[in-house]
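ping. complex inputs:
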Amino acid sequence: MVITFPHMGTMYIPVKALFDELGINIVIPPRISKRTLEVGLKCCPEMACLPLKVTIGNYVESIKRGADTIVLSGSCGPCRFGYYGVVQKEILRDLGYDVEIVILDPPREGIKEFWERVKKITGNSPLYKGLRAINKAFKVCEETERLLKLVLQKRCREVYKGDTDRTFNRFEDKIRSVKGAQGILECIQETRKQLENIKVDNNKKPIKVGLVGEIYTIIEPYVNLNIEKRLGDMGVEVHREMSVDGWVKYHLAPDIKFRRKQKQILESSKDYLGLCIGGHAWETVAHTLNYSREGMDGIIQILPFGCMPEIVAESILPTIAKEECIPIMTLVVDELTGEAGYQTRLEAFVDLLHLERSRRENEFGKVLSWN
Amino acid sequence: MNIGIPRALLYFDYFPMWQTFLNYLGFSIIISPPTTKDILNIGVSLCVDDACLPVKLFHGHVAYLKEKVDVIFVPRLVSVAPGEFICPKFIGLPEMIKNSIENLPPLLIFNYNLYKGIRDKKDAFDDLGRQLGVSSSHVDRAYKEAISRQYIYEAMIESGQNPLAILHPKEKWDKLDYSKGVIGIIAHPYLVCDRYISMDIAKKIRDKGYDVRISANVPQTIRENNLETMPKRLFWSYGRNLLGSGIEWLKGNEVDGIIFLSSFGCGIDSFIEELIRRYNARQLRLPYAVFTIDEHSGQAGFDTRLEAFLDMLEWRCKDGYNFSPYGYDVYSSKSSIR
Ligand code: SF4
Ligand code: SF4
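pong. complex structure:
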């Protein structure tokens, strides 16, 4: 059995750690490229959401490299994500790929079913071994996220353009060939040190932008046209609450403190949206509110075309923008999104944020001089 | 007090229930008129661009009502059956309305959520009663009345009637005396029952001499049965209706051709359509067409395609099933879809 899984940003790192520890062979799908997307475009319904199209490309590319089992997490509504597996299976079947798809639904849909599926993957390895592997994978997940957060901080302040990305790219090249959780952790530590040594301009007060929206689009750089890097290169500090690590902590590992904090953030947005409507729309609204109160200069919502829950959020955000006095921009991405137009919109938005900030500072100055 | 009910989205599924309940409690109801170009245009201009057509249309109907009534009834249907959901947009509908339309009268929100179990059904009505300030004993009686009315309505639909015809007796469809065949339209009720946005497809087909069946006409038990074999429980109630009826028709006994009427930007339709198309291709290869409508759909192009489809159907019926327009031998294909 050779397992593969869809890409989502750097999620492959903890997943790799997990399977390495379990001693299971995996194929990490090649980095998402135009070719990956083309596969998806050819065989998916036009109206399907972008993540479906990209992930099917992942599978096909992995199958060609020898994978025969696909593992993905499921959910049971209300959003489409939960039904990805079924539709993708039919598509793969018609393409002539006879692979097994194991959908890991949350245990509440039936604990027995869940166990059977887990067993299908882990085979006969003893329980304690499995638990240990999971534990290590969690650790890797956490560390990876910390690394990503560090990148976000460094990129907008670096003195020599490109230092941060060079370091991080080197890390990504290397990590694919490292085996075992321990090795991966060491590799992360090493990169961390390198990142910390990057020369930065500490006097700089970068514009701060909060990123909200559909989780896959936020995390996967290929689909969001590498928004973090684009903004970082413009000298903008990007904040993003949404992460693989956060998802794991909220849904899989019972991290009570983390959950409580998230719940609190969600609750605080009651006036705008008071219940889960599927996907991450509630988080989008809540984080927007939270960011604006934390003093961000602006907020960018990003969603794939046709994303049902985010559209609801999109219609709520203008009210928040008005009431909280914070610029919010919504970016919709699909397979046709052009780079040039995208860049222009980002630049225009960042210009606006600079203007707003200097206006605010002026006003502040005036107030002071009056006194 | 006048309560406005927008003639869009779930109106076509639940109006009898709402009407009975509210009338019983002594409120008068004003329904927005059938969709017109203006209503649609207003809806499109108010709603976020990326929403699907039916949701935009709902905005239009609310905008029409806002100056004419004291409160507007906006359903928030989270779930209509245990363990199932409907579209995320229905759940967020009141929020979308509130944030997109200005100067609204108060909204009367109908929070209907059966996700945890059928027992919660009455909660929604109790809640309505509270919002309206009526006594709970009144609510109880109105509730009973409403439920039984709704039950009759659903039974009538399952017996083959068009929801529109039940709501508006003028629009009644009689069985055609002489019909060339039956066409199944897979679609949400709020698409196919809105004569404006569905481009009056049902009537056009009937004018050509074909009988029409819609998804809701397939009895629920049959739909549910057909879904038993799905590898994973489908958790959208509307998706279940569409797919369940689609699978039934794919067996080829009930209809001669299938039309999938979907709205541009609908996430659920895109998945269900994909499955039905693939199942059909593996099985009988019934004549099948997808019509996607959005606010820019042109009448002319739509009619031409519909005619082409019906022509194809006619040839196929005439020449029997010994040749297939797709270039495959229909009999050699696998007989099971899975
Ligand atoms: S949240 Fe959006 S992108 Fe994700 S499955 Fe749902 S519709 Fe698709
Ligand atoms: S089910 Fe489809 S058409 Fe209906 S509201 Fe949802 S996205 Fe729109």
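Chain B has a mean pLDDT of 85.
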